[in-house]
Amino acid sequence: MTGILRSLVTLILTAYSLSCGAQAYPNKPIRVIVGFPAGGSTDFVTRALSDRMSAQMGQTIVVDNRPGAGGLIGLDAVLKAERDGYTLGYLASPTLISALMAGRDINPDRDMTHIGLIYRRGLFLGLNPNAPEFKGVKTGTDLAAVIRANPGKINFGSIGIGSTGHLLGEMMKSSGKLDWMHVPYKGISQLSQESMAGLAPIVVMGTTVDDPKNSGGRMINVAVTSAQRHQGAPDVQTLIEAGFPGIDATTWGSFYAPAGIPQAAASRLAAEFKTAHERPEVQKQLAQFDPEYMAPAQLAVLARNHLQLWGKVIRDNNLQGK
Q1: How many CB atoms lie within 10 A of CB 139?
Q2: What is the largest CA-CA distance in the chain?
Q3: According to the model, what pLDDT value does residue 276 have?
C-alpha cells in the first residue's frame, strides 16, 4: 500500500508541476523587436499593442528597436532568437519586399509564428492638379488617359527602388499598359514637396489621405490601390475602378514570433493580441493607420500572397539586388 500511495503522490505532484509550468507563461519579460527607429510610426503602433498586452498579461513587454536594411536587421534578430515565446517581432510588409529584393530565402509559413494583424491600408496616388500636365485630372481614370497621351513624359515617385510605391508603379505599367518613369526619392516628404512645388509632373505613391485644404489645393488623391475605397476618402476611385484589373495592393503591419515556439505560448499571445486590438483605446490610437484584425491563419495567407504578388513584380522587372 505504501508503494501505491507513493506512486499516487508522485503522479499528483508531477501533474501539478506540469500544470503550473503550463500556466507560468509568461514568467519573465517579453521583448518585441522592431526593425525601424524609435519614434516612428512602426514604433508607435508596436507600443500601442504591446503596452495593452503587457497590462493584460501582468508581465513587462519591452520594445527593442533594431533599425536598418529596410527592416531586415530586425527580421534576422527575431528569426534567430530562442524559440521560447519571449521574443516577438513587428513585421512591416515592406520588410518582406526588402527580403525579396535582397535575394533572401524567406518563407513566412516555414519561418514565422503569426500572432495577429494590426492594420492594413492601400496606397494613394496623389498629384498636383495645378501642374500643366495634370490639368483637369480628378480621378484615376483621368490620370491613366493623361499618361497614355504622354508616353514617357509622366513620372511616378516613391521613397526608393524596391519600395512598395515603386513596385506598384511597375505593376500599373503592366496592368494598364502604361509608359511612365520611376523617380526614387529619399523620403515621402521630399517627394511630396517637389510635387507640390510643381517641379515635375510626378504622381506620389503614399499612404496618407491628402486633404486639399491641408496642401492649399496643391495635392489631391486620384486613386487608392486597395480593392475597396478608403472610408476616409470615399470619393477616391480604386485602381480597379480606374481600369487597372487585378490590382489589390496594400501595406500592413503585424506581430509574429520565430517558428516553433511552444503552442501554449503561441495560443496565449494570439488571444492576448486579439483582446488588446479590440480595446476601444487601442482602436483610437490606431485609427490613422486603418486598424484591421486578422487571426494567425488568415495572416499566414496574407503574408504568403504578399510574397507571391511582389515577388512576381520583382522578377518580371529584374529588380532583385538593385
Answers
A1: 17
A2: 98
A3: 98
All three cell numbers of 152, joined, read: 514617357
In percent, the amount of the chain with pLDDT more than 70 equals 87
Cα separation, 68 vs 175, whole angstroms: 32
79 Cβ neighbours under 8 A, 6+ residues apart:
111, 112, 258
| The CATH classification of domain 25-121+250-316, taken from the options 3.40.190.150, 3.30.750.24, 3.30.1330.130, 3.30.70.1490 | 3.40.190.150
Residue 19 has pLDDT above 60, yes or no: no
- For residue 160, what is the DSSP state? S
**DSSP letter (8 states) at residue 124:** E
- Equal CATH topology for 25-121+250-316 and 124-238: yes
Q: What pLDDT shows up at residue 233?
A: 86
Q: Where are the alpha helices (DSSP H) in the chain?
A: 2-24, 41-57, 72-79, 93-101, 108-111, 140-149, 164-176, 188-197, 263-278, 280-286, 296-316
Angle at 74 between CA 73 and CA 75, to 5 degrees: 90
Classify 10 as helix, strand or coil. Answer: helix
